């Protein structure tokens, strides 16, 4: 089990350490080569820059203000050293002695510059944060809305972790793109140019020395950063491993599994081993490059010293423009060049990373839902025979099926009249559940026509269609909320009396009333605090609260024990009264009373009739019924 801690991350379709790596505007503690490889995998989006600009177009006024503030702030950063030169030469050490009025004026000017710079910094931070987070919020809702419109097959073929990464990591990085990448590029560029101009104005000979020495310092600093980044990447991977272990073992399912097999100590040992690895990497990360840092510090200290030596040499040679103020101002400006210069050396990677982030977002926004309303789609007509369901020579093949594979449904035709209870039975994989997907148009028929209330479902608005259909699936999904909140998902404005009526109809009210908190009882994650039968009856109550004319039951009792099945079946029988019911059944005993039973084999309807008719026919249904009758009860 030692190597399995990353199962959760791998199952989610994301690499250890945080999804796509696109959740930041700038590259953080990650190997630059790995980041470049990740950027190269980003989709190619036409007119990417134009589309990115479009996201910020509504905020162009504040954005222009940000650009101006960045430029002004960067330019002001080199003013204090110039004022320092004047303070030394004209205020502290003029030939006639200290000139306090001049010195006071220069000091006041420096304080004003510091105050203005600070105010600009606060204003800039507020604006960038506001713009970035607003764009991020708008984009997140836009992407979430778009994903809600995607067809069911998109979610069956896409891992949830990948979708979450787009919504959280990639969209979450939008604010950082503005705050870090754009501000950094503009600010660092202006700072470097301004500082260089200031250095030339102060003394061009000293500037030559600084320019010659600066690349060596930058290279040394980058070398340190690369070594530490590789260790940081391993540290992040270890953290991801620990997170995965926590998610696996401390979830309800994980705890249940470990207790069932008495593997708690094994899980503790696995966590402890990874914790020791994390400690080792943290120490290594702290110590890695200490010699490099020492050399960099020596180098940083050496440049001013070399400037002092050169200044002395120039003064000895008769230079009159090298003063104490010049030397102090020059070393101050030169000292502020390092980090902006290093930032500019990362510009290409930063911009590439930001572009990859937006490309992944636009890739999802560009997805076209396979099932959409037609431009002339209509609501279910008033007075139409709601509840009549017709399949007219319907064939269906799943989008990801092999080209030479047989269709899941092949030339299927049947009619279910309003109020009828129709059951679909057959071997596993025969295509029964697909019928339940095509009725509410969760999937689109490949050929033929599916009609609801006499109208082709492709001509109906999906929202109008779904208003008349209620679905109870085999895997009941309950939110981690109260029973009342789960029920009101079907009808948010339902009164307490309506909740109770639906619960009574689903044969679950007495059970709910027996709980200490009644309808306010929290069901736990995915309803873990309830039994399978209780969850299923709450799901039935939820559908009954919606009060649809058509009820679709997709093997709603197949996962239950015999006793729970009987209770749930009783609830289903009551719920089906007066409604058209499509029941996908595994256990044939649950559909004996159906008005019509369709037997599906290999995608085709091979038999149809009542329970008695099909037994008398002695075909597939009779054979399946006999096999299940021979099986012992649960």
UniProtKB/TrEMBL annotation:
<feature type="transmembrane region" description="Helical">
    <location>
        <begin position="61"/>
        <end position="83"/>
    </location>
</feature>
<feature type="transmembrane region" description="Helical">
    <location>
        <begin position="174"/>
        <end position="196"/>
    </location>
</feature>
<dbReference type="InterPro" id="IPR027417">
    <property type="entry name" value="P-loop_NTPase"/>
</dbReference>
<keyword id="KW-0547">Nucleotide-binding</keyword>
<keyword id="KW-1133">Transmembrane helix</keyword>
<comment type="similarity">
    <text>Belongs to the ABC transporter superfamily. Siderophore-Fe(3+) uptake transporter (SIUT) (TC 3.A.1.21) family.</text>
</comment>
<dbReference type="GO" id="GO:0005524">
    <property type="term" value="F:ATP binding"/>
</dbReference>
<dbReference type="GO" id="GO:0005886">
    <property type="term" value="C:plasma membrane"/>
</dbReference>
<keyword id="KW-0997">Cell inner membrane</keyword>
<dbReference type="Pfam" id="PF00664">
    <property type="entry name" value="ABC_membrane"/>
</dbReference>
<feature type="transmembrane region" description="Helical">
    <location>
        <begin position="103"/>
        <end position="126"/>
    </location>
</feature>
<dbReference type="InterPro" id="IPR017871">
    <property type="entry name" value="ABC_transporter-like_CS"/>
</dbReference>
<dbReference type="InterPro" id="IPR039421">
    <property type="entry name" value="Type_1_exporter"/>
</dbReference>
<dbReference type="GO" id="GO:0015421">
    <property type="term" value="F:ABC-type oligopeptide transporter activity"/>
</dbReference>
<dbReference type="GO" id="GO:0090374">
    <property type="term" value="P:oligopeptide export from mitochondrion"/>
</dbReference>
<keyword id="KW-0813">Transport</keyword>
<keyword id="KW-0472">Membrane</keyword>
<protein>
    <submittedName>
        <fullName>ABC transporter ATP-binding protein</fullName>
    </submittedName>
</protein>
<dbReference type="InterPro" id="IPR003439">
    <property type="entry name" value="ABC_transporter-like_ATP-bd"/>
</dbReference>
<dbReference type="InterPro" id="IPR003593">
    <property type="entry name" value="AAA+_ATPase"/>
</dbReference>
<feature type="domain" description="ABC transmembrane type-1">
    <location>
        <begin position="64"/>
        <end position="353"/>
    </location>
</feature>
<feature type="transmembrane region" description="Helical">
    <location>
        <begin position="202"/>
        <end position="220"/>
    </location>
</feature>
<feature type="domain" description="ABC transporter">
    <location>
        <begin position="389"/>
        <end position="627"/>
    </location>
</feature>
<dbReference type="InterPro" id="IPR011527">
    <property type="entry name" value="ABC1_TM_dom"/>
</dbReference>
<keyword id="KW-1003">Cell membrane</keyword>
<dbReference type="InterPro" id="IPR036640">
    <property type="entry name" value="ABC1_TM_sf"/>
</dbReference>
<keyword id="KW-0812">Transmembrane</keyword>
<keyword id="KW-0067">ATP-binding</keyword>
<feature type="compositionally biased region" description="Gly residues">
    <location>
        <begin position="15"/>
        <end position="26"/>
    </location>
</feature>
<feature type="transmembrane region" description="Helical">
    <location>
        <begin position="291"/>
        <end position="316"/>
    </location>
</feature>
<dbReference type="Pfam" id="PF00005">
    <property type="entry name" value="ABC_tran"/>
</dbReference>
<feature type="region of interest" description="Disordered">
    <location>
        <begin position="1"/>
        <end position="29"/>
    </location>
</feature>
<dbReference type="GO" id="GO:0016887">
    <property type="term" value="F:ATP hydrolysis activity"/>
</dbReference>
């Amino acid at each position: 089990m030692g190597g399995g801690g990353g199962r959760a991350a791998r199952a989610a379709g994301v690499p250890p350490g945080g999804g796509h790596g696109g959740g930041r505007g700038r590259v953080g503690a990650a190997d630059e080569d790995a980041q470049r490889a990740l950027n190269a995998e980003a989709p190619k989006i036409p007119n990417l820059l134009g589309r990115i600009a479009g996201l910020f177009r509504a905020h162009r006024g504040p954005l222009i203000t940000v650009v101006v503030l960045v430029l002004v702030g960067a330019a002001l950063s080199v003013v204090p050293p110039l004022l320092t030169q004047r303070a030394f030469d004209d205020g502290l050490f003029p030939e006639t002695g200290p000139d306090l009025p001049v010195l006071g004026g220069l000091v006041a000017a420096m304080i004003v510059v510091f105050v203005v710079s600070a105010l600009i910094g606060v204003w800039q931070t507020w604006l960038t944060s506001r713009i970035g987070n607003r764009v991020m919020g708008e984009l997140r809702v836009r992407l979430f809305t778009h994903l809600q419109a995607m067809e069911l097959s998109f979610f069956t073929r896409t891992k949830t972790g990948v979708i979450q990464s787009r919504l959280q990591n990639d969209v979450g990085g939008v604010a950082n793109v503005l705050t870090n990448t754009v501000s950094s590029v503009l600010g660092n560029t202006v700072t470097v140019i301004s500082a260089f101009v200031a250095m030339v104005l102060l003394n061009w000979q000293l500037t030559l020395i600084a320019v010659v020495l600066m690349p060596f310092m930058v290279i040394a600093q980058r070398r340190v950063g690369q070594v530490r980044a590789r260790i940081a990447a391993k540290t992040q991977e270890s953290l991801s491993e620990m997170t995965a272990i926590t998610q696996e073992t401390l979830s309800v399912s994980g705890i249940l599994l470990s207790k069932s097999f008495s593997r708690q100590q094994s899980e503790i040992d696995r966590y402890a081993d990874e914790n020791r690895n994390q400690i080792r990497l943290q120490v290594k990360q702290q110590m890695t490059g200490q010699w490099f840092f020492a050399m960099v510090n020596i180098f940083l200290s050496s440049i001013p010293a070399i400037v002092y030596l050169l200044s002395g040499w120039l003064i000895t040679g008769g230079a009159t423009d090298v003063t104490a103020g010049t030397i102090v101002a020059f070393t101050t400006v030169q000292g502020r060049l390092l980090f902006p210069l290093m930032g500019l050396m990362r510009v290409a990677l930063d911009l590439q990373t930001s572009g990859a982030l937006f490309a992944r977002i636009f890739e999802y926004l560009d997805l076209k839902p396979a099932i959409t309303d037609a431009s002339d789609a209509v609501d279910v007509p008033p007075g139409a025979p709601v509840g009549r369901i017709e399949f007219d020579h319907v064939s269906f093949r799943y989008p990801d099926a092999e080209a030479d594979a047989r269709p899941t449904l092949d030339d299927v035709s049947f009619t279910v009249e309003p109020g009828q209870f129709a059951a679909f039975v057959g071997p596993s994989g025969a295509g029964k559940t697909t019928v339940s997907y095509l009725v509410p148009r969760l999937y689109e028929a490949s050929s033929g026509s599916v009609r609801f209330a006499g109208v082709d479902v492709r001509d109906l608005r999906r929202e109008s269609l779904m208003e008349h259909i209620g679905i109870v699936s085999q895997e009941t999904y309950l939110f981690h909320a109260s029973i009342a909140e789960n029920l009101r998902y079907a009808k948010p404005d339902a009164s307490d009396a309506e909740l109770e009526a639906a619960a009574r109809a689903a044969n679950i009210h007495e059970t709910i009333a027996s709980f200490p908190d009644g309808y306010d009882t929290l069901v736990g994650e995915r309803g873990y605090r309830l039994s399978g039968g209780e969850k299923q009856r709450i799901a039935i109550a939820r559908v009954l609260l919606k009060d649809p004319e058509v009820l679709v039951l997709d093997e709603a009792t197949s996962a239950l024990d015999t006793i729970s099945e009987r209770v749930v079946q009783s609830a289903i029988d009551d719920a089906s009264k007066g409604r058209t019911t499509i029941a996908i059944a595994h256990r044939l005993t649950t559909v004996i009373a159906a008005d019509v039973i369709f037997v599906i084999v290999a995608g085709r309807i091979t038999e149809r009739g009542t329970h008695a008719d099909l037994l008398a026919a002695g075909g597939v249904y009779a054979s399946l019924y006999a096999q299940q009758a021979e099986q012992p009860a649960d």
